[in-house]
Amino acid sequence: MGWRGSLIYTALNIALAAVIAAIAQPGNRGLVFIGALVALELAPWLLALWTGLKFWVAYHAFLKRQSVDLIKREMRKHDLPTASAFFDHSRYLTHTIESDRTTLRAKLRASGFAAEIRTLQSVRPQTAGRAYAAMFQEAMKQHSSEAAATTGADPAEPRE
Questions:
Q1: Strands annotated E in 10-103
Q2: Pick from 9, 49, 67, 70: most CB atoms within 10 A?
């Protein structure tokens, strides 16, 4: 929202505060106008803060564990390579997509993961974008650890 949008938004808040003040008792109109204007300007910020707080509480309470398990299941289902040689999801997914050793099915799923992460980081950067990236990082670690446990390889060593 550019400066014009902010100007229109503020003008609408002033008009609504003036209507609220006009309804108020004659002696308190100035105070009611200022109070209504402050409330109208602060309400979106407070709502955004409350919404963000609810999201992060739900993320840590429910969403994280279930989503990590789902991502790991998808990684196993599509035979994505272990991520032990990588420290972030971006490099891991890029390597998986560009590698000649990776199957087409794994490449397609890796590009799907990359698209999901980038989309969420664009649309909801402070909540879902950060949360999904963190969940994917955790799933990468667990996927590598589980693969090392079943094959006997060191999860800190690259497989290639």
A1: none
A2: 67
Note if the pTM is more than 0.85: no
- Sequence-distant contacts of 143-151: CB under 8 A, at least 24 apart: 143/72, 143/75, 143/76, 143/80, 143/82, 143/83, 144/82, 144/83, 144/84, 146/72, 147/82, 147/84, 148/82, 148/84
Task: Give residues with Cβ within 8 angstroms of 130, minimum separation 6.
Answer: 121
d(CA 109, CA 2): 37
Q: Closest Cα to residue 137, out of 99, 105, 91, 76?
A: 91
